[in-house]
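Researcher: Can you fold this with 4'-deoxy-4'-aminopyridoxal-5'-phosphate in place?
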Amino acid sequence: MGPLILGHAHVTVTEALREAIADGTSFGAPTEREVEMAELVRQMAPSVQMLRMVNSGTEATLSAVRLARGATGRPKIVKMEGCYHGHGDSLLAKAGSGVATLGLPDSPGVTPATAADTLTVPYNDAVAAEVALAANPGQVAAIIVEPVAGNMGCVPPAEGYLARLRELATAHGALLIFDEVMTGFRVAPGGAQQLYGVRPDLTTFGKIIGGGLPVGAYGGRRDLMEQIAPSGPVYQAGTLSGNPLAMAAGLATLRILASRPEIYEHLEERSAMLAEGLLAAAAEAGVAATVNRVGSMMTLFFQPGPVTDYASAKRSDAARFARFFHAMLGLGHYLPPSQYECLFMSAAHSKADVAATIAAAKQAMEAVAAGR
Ligand code: PMP
């Protein structure tokens, strides 16, 4: 699912955890590591002028949405079909990830009143977003988007799409929230906002920021973040937020990423090698496939493509994906178990690992072609 960009049990991260555990594991108050973490995130992603730690990506997005509503005094949000922002009630409409995998339309347990405040539009369709904003004047608190979608499989933003969302949000008095739970610190040290040069008002983080421990965070413009309690009226709190162990693992991970840009070059090189190898394996076996990739996140879709949104992602052959997944598992390669998830390369994967994966994929594709 993407948190372990340095691989399992990285020695520096493990050592940082060992040190932190001896200092005590919970204080119910900020600790020095939390401050260091915020300063480092601000350096890596400068749109984040202030940061609040929470315990998961879900908490980050639902807190950011509450803040957007509190700051604008508006009730509605615009979200993109097939994007997943965790399991907060108002974000479950037309969600990707497990919701898409299990074929659930929207989740039982979300009240109609809550669902009514979420407007969903197709990904990569700025005109649809504009129409939704225009049809709800003065009502939309925020546009929330995965700047590279990862939860309908990997779907990159079309040229100019994110910049257009930025313009639309500003023109309509709504905030722009980038959900960088997946892309943060992965597609570039400063996330997708660095890669595409678009500055959101608020950003949510998860996964890598915790170095494998349960962490989420949200941050952005100072004037907005100051509206959160205790400095402002928008309430959000958490007993274990900024937990010292979680901060230690996350900080150790981010420090390595911030100080070693060559990691991103290696990730790019090996990811390109894997993408090419997977496509070649499919082609050799006569299996229709396309790969979408941004840096070290990618998806092999069982269809000719192009995959640009949720509707096109759903044209994939899920039965073929299932055969491929189980064949790969049988060969000792554990892939993300859904057509609607991303493969993530880590710095621990060697070229030999990638070559072995491609070799296995060749065999697995033969099983797919044979319908086994
Ligand atoms: N946002 C995005 C973009 C995600 O990919 C995820 C998790 N896959 C979440 C939010 C939710 O994060 P968590 O699972 O930590 O609650």
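Model: Folded with 4'-deoxy-4'-aminopyridoxal-5'-phosphate in place. The first strand starts at residue 50 and ends at 54.
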